[in-house]
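Reference record:
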Amino acid sequence: MLQLLGNLASVPMLQATNIPVEPVGYWLLYTALSFILIGISLFIARQIRLGASLLEGLLKKEEITDWAKRVLALSLLFAIVGSMFILLLNLNTDPESVPAIWKIILASIDAGVQEEIFYRFFLMTLLVWLGGLIWQDKDGKPKKFVFWTAIGISAIIFAWAHLDDKIVNPEIPASSAAYVTAMMVNASLGIILGWLYWKYGLESAMLAHFLIDAIGIGIVMPVYLSSNLLLQVAVITGLLLVAVAFWHMLMNSSIQL
C-alpha cells in the first residue's frame, strides 16, 4: 500500500517535467518492479530480523504505542537536523525555482517511500544478509559490524545517486568542495536513515525521510531564501523548541533510544 502511494505521488511530478515518458505507463512499470524488490526483501529480511516493525506489530496485535512515540520523536529530531543539511546543499538556489508546496509534499512522499524501499529495505537488507552468511554472532544473527557496513555502503550509494547533475556531468565544471560536500551531506542522511531502519523498522526510515524533505525543502529553504529576518528567527526558534520538547520526552520517560 505504501509503495502504491509513493508511486502515485510521482505521477504529477512526471507530468510537470519534460521527461519523455508516459506517466501512467511509468507508474505501472515501476510498480511491477517495486513489488519484485519488495518480495525479495521480505524473504531475506525475515531471516535477519529486519523489516516493517509497525506492520508486523499490527498484524500480531501487539501494543505499538511505545514504538510510535520513539519513532515520531526520533524522526522529528532527525528531520530538523536533516533539514539543515538540505539547506546546506541549496544555499545558492534561485528562489523562483522552489516548487509549489503541494509538489514538495508529493515529492517528499515519493522519496520517502520509494527510496527507502530500494536503498534500505532492498539494498541494505541484501548487504546485511550476504554479510551474515559469513559473519554471525553466537545466536546466528549477523554481527553488528555487518549492519554498520551495510548502512555505510548503502548510504554512499544513496549519496552518489543524489549528486546534482552539475556535479556528475563532466561537461559542466564543479568544484571538488561541492562534490565532497554533497557526498558527505547525503551520506550522513543515508546513515541516519539506515540506523533508523535497523533499530525501528522501515516505517521509521520512511517517516524520517519524508519529514527531512518536507521540512527542509518546504519550510527551511524557502524561509532562508526569503531574506525575511523576522520570519527566519521565528522559524528557527520554533524548530528549536520542537527539538527540545521531543528530546526532553526521550530523556525523561521510559522511551529508550
In short: The longest helix spans residues 101-132. Residues 14 and 154 are 26 Å apart (CA to CA). The two ends are 28 Å apart (CA to CA).
